[in-house]
Amino acid sequence: MATPARRTFDFRSTALFFTFLALILILLGFLARTVAGAVERRPVWVGVLVLVGVAGFVALRRRLHVARAARRAAAALDEAAREAAAELDPPRTAVLPRQRPAEEVVVDYDALDPEEFEAAVAELCARDGCSAVEVVGGAGDLGADVVAVAPDGRRVVIQCKRYGDSHRVGSQELQRFGGTCFTVHEADVAVLVTTSDFTAPAAEYAARCGIVCVDRQALLAWADGTGPRPWEAAGTTGATGAAGAQPPLAECE
Predict the structure, then answer these.
(1) Co-location of 115 and 82 in the same domain
(2) Rounded to an integer, what distance in angstroms lies between the CA atom of residue 239 and that of residue 113?
(3) Which of 5, 54, 66, 151 has its CA 20 to 30 A from that of 138?
(4) Domain boundaries, position 39
């Protein structure tokens, strides 16, 4: 086991230590003598200086306490203001730009075949609030091409005639439709829609039987929203002046 090395005596360090200690004692003695002499010669001034020093120390401590209290109060007020602002000003939701409605597609009814025309009329019914819209046209349809339930609950039965301008709907076609729309299809509102027009006898028959006639002009007005829906025209003057109250069925068969 190794023996720890002995520390050698440093005479120089020891001498310097005692020298500094002697200087400190001499300085403290001089200060004590000076203070004692000042007390003997001017005791009032010494008392005043002591009081001023104590007062300054007390004032400094109070100032530090006041500054700390002021900082704490400012922090508390700032926090309270933030909480109040958060309660008064609810979070704002992002305002999305309003979406522009899609442009309505203008249908060229003259370019449609009879089946497509029936589907287009059914789409108009569905667009304007009808339910249970169904295209039933075809062989054995007995005059009903589109059936639907109007928003007010009435059953709507529509026959579609895709004709050219020179081919007007005649009274015989109205009579055939009038013979089935109410008795067979149990229509509350019977409608005949055409891309053409109606002859005068056909319009007269429709008015007598309570069938709503929608000619080319009335169809376009219905499509662009400027004209009445067929079920709205029922019971009043029809789309071509051909709708009225339904008379006894015998007159329409």
Answers:
(1) no
(2) 23
(3) 151
(4) 15-87
Does the predicted TM-score (pTM) go above 0.85? no
- CA 83, 84, 90, 92 dihedral sign is negative
C-beta separation of 171 from 211 below 8 A: no
> What is the count of structural domains for the chain?
2
In our burial notation (b when 16+ CB lie closer than 10 A, e otherwise), range 114-129 reads eeebbbbbbebbeebe
Residue 191 phi, psi dihedral angles, 5° rounding: -135, 135
Tens digit of each residue's pLDDT (9 = 90 or more) over 182-212: 999 999 999 999 999 999 999 999 999 999 9
Beta strands at 146-149 and 155-161: parallel, antiparallel or unpaired? antiparallel
| Residue with the two structure tokens 């109205």 | 174
Residue pair 212/244 in contact (Cβ under 8 Å)? The answer is: no
Any idea what the CATH number is for the domain that residue 157 is in? 3.40.1350.10
